[in-house]
Design a protein that fits this description.
It is built from 5 helices and 8 strands, in the order βαββαββββαααβ. The longest helix has 13 residues. It is of the alpha+beta class. Helix content is 34%, strand content 31%. The protein has one domain. The N and C termini lie close together (12 Å). Strands 1, 2, 3, 4, 5, 6, 7 and 8 form an 8-stranded mixed beta sheet that branches. The model has no long low-confidence stretch (mean pLDDT 91). Pfam families: DUF3145.
């Protein structure tokens, strides 16, 4: 089953950008040349984005490949496809990798077991709020927000998985 998604490299040291391209190319089994631009939110770093088409599960493979460079801020999305939820992966240095399922409109979807575990493990309203915020990726969203806006207006490349 084919789906599509987007890789947003919000910030990468310039010297690491060829490695990011190779990681994406390795997952997609296609030549990848991204259109890098300066990332104003992190002087000295660059940003790029690309759309991709491939089988369900490609976003997870892309996120796994990209997190090898812990200094890179990125997000990888995968649209829902028949029988498969959409997904979003976010990586922030110091926070690590976050993963959430997404609905057709992009909202984060929490499973029943996730909510039950958060309720059972919460000793106060504040601890429940922290647990739910972590499930929703709030710290990652907060950390990436200025990097998302710093990239507005960039045209994404379009990539297709060969195999």
């Amino acid at each position: 089953m084919s789906t599509r998604g987007v890789v947003y490299v919000h910030s990468s040291p310039s010297a690491v950008s060829p490695h990011v391209e190779w990681a994406i190319a390795g997952v997609l089994d296609a030549r990848v040349v991204l259109d890098w631009s300066a990332q104003d939110a992190a002087p000295g770093s660059v940003r790029a984005e690309c759309t991709w088409v491939g089988p369900a599960g490609t976003a997870a493979r892309l996120a796994t490949a990209l997190r090898a460079w812990s200094m890179v801020r990125f997000e990888v999305t995968e649209d829902p496809s028949a029988g498969t939820d959409g997904e979003r992966f976010s990586h922030v240095p110091g926070l690590g990798l976050w993963h959430g399922r997404t609905s057709a409109n992009g909202d984060i979807v929490l499973g029943e077991d996730q909510v039950r575990a958060a309720l059972a493990g919460a000793s106060s309203r504040e601890s429940l709020t922290r647990r739910l915020d972590d499930l929703l990726g709030t710290r990652w969203d907060d950390a990436l927000e200025e990097f998302r806006f710093a990239g507005d207006g960039a045209a994404p490349a379009r990539l297709h998985q060969v195999g």
